[in-house]
Amino acid sequence: MEALATFKKELSSPKNIFITTHVKPDADALGSSLGLANYLIKKGHKVTVVTPTDYPYFLTWMKGNDEVLDFSKPSEKAQAQSRLEEADMIFCLDFSVLNRVNELGELIRKSKAFVVNIDHHQDPEDFAHFRYWSTKAAATCELVYELIVELGDESLIDKDIAECLYAGIMTDTGGFRHPNTTKNVHLVVAELLDKGADSSQIANLIYDSNSVNRLKFIGFAITRRLVVREDLHTAYFVISKKDLKKYQSQTGDTEGLVNYALSLDGIKLAALFSEREDGIKISFRSSSDVAVNKFAASHFNGGGHKNAAGGKSAQTLKETVERFESLVEQCQVELFHSDPVVAD
Ligand code: 5GP
Ligand code: MN
Fold first, then answer.
1. Co-location of 87 and 183 in the same domain
2. Closest Cα to atom 17 of ligand 1
3. Distance from the CA of 184 to the center of ligand 1, in angstroms?
4. CB under 8 Å to 299, separation ≥6 — which residues?
5. Rounded Cα gap, residues 240 and 224, in angstroms
6. CA 103 to centroid of chain Cα atoms
7. Is residue 342 included in any domain, yes or no?
8. Domains in the chain, number
9. Fewer CB under 10 Å: which end of the chain, C or N?
10. pLDDT digits (tens, 9 = 90+) for 98-109
11. Range of the domain at 37
12. Ligand 2 centroid vs 119 CA: distance in angstroms?
């Protein structure tokens, strides 16, 4: 692993830079990528942002959105691939394991470029030359802000960059409510506001841009697709392909749904199972004393943070949910009573 000094040296002359982030980017993934891209462009680099898949419509306001290439779109893939081949540097943002970027993962592994990983997820894979990583950071956007400051370029953070970064911090802290909302988060956000970020407008763009279909879908899911197992402190949604089709679901429409399950009194573990083209996608959320990332990694080929993680399953929806329920039953002690047992 190279040091910060080597990284700085790499960046000291104009470079071809390729930035990517995880599948189905959220506000932290896209905000950190575009915030960093806008900064690097100001420094004179040639920058391309490529996402492995599409992302929610409520993120498309960020500066640079129109130039983002989607690797899953046949019409954009060839261009994205040639930008990757030309790249001197590759930045991997908001993910720590290369299987989070689909096919791009192996291309990055084989690339001769200088690879940088900026992230806040646990258990990073060793694929980067330089890693700017901390699980103490609430968001990758917080780390991008700190990196720009570390490079001595705080004055280059303008309103557009500040708004990209603010968006990721706002959503990864659940609107400044999760336990990761540290003093540092507030200090960084104060600086971003100072740079011109319009906090209420960003909240409005992200949280108050529902389509009628989405709102109806949320109502349907809460009334018809929520399973509550009070005995297991667990509640979860099961959403089939047919349900998604019926409500003409768009990317991002299930975002946040899992939190309704966690909001129930007495519920400590919440999940959302959604049946997608490529298998079952699972979101896990938990109260502060329950760790879901290890559960996701051990049983659902996933990972994430202590209280917000995800995974996948190649079984049917029904089989996946049945397996989940029996795992929660089996793992109750590990999940809900993890305090050290003191011997008499
Ligand atoms: P979400 O439920 O919002 O998709 O994801 C919650 C958190 O878990 C995010 O930090 C995300 O990066 C992580 N995550 C979601 N799905 C996966 C997955 O399949 N693998 C891993 N390693 N992390 C995931
Ligand atoms: Mn993040």
1. yes
2. 310
3. 23
4. 311, 323, 324, 327
5. 12
6. 18
7. no
8. 2
9. C
10. 999 999 999 999
11. 4-207
12. 7
- Please indicate, yes or no, whether residues 200 and 217 belong to a single structural domain of this protein: no
* Closest CA to ligand 1's atom 19: 311
Give per-residue pLDDT as tens, 210-243: 999 999 999 999 999 999 999 999 999 999 999 9
Task: Identify whether residues 262 and 129 lie together within a single domain.
Answer: no
Whether residue 81 sits in one domain with residue 17: yes
**Nearest-ligand number for the alpha carbon of 262:** 1
Q: How far is the CA of 258 from the centre of ligand 1 (A)?
A: 13
Per-residue pLDDT at 320 exceeds 80: yes
The model's confidence at residue 10, banded by pLDDT at 50, 70 and 90, is: very high
For 181-221, the DSSP string reads: --HHHHHHHHHHHHTT--HHHHHHHHHS---HHHHHHHHHH
ipTM of the assembly? 0.97
Q: Which residues surround ligand 2, an ion (CB under 5 A)?
A: 28, 94, 140, 172
With a Cβ cut-off of 6 Å, ligand 1 is lined by 22, 26, 97, 100, 283, 302-305, 308-312
pLDDT band at 333; cut points 50, 70, 90: confident
Domain end marker among 185, 207, 229: 207
The answer to whether position 341 is within a domain reads: no
- pLDDT, tens digit, for every residue of 190-203? 999 999 999 999 99
165 and 243 co-located in one domain: no
Chosen domain end from 182, 207, 232:
207
How many angstroms separate the alpha carbon of residue 303 from the centre of ligand 2?
12
Q: Go through 298-318 and write b for each residue having 16 or more CB atoms within 10 A of its CB, e for each that does not.
A: ebbebbbbbbbbbbebeeebe
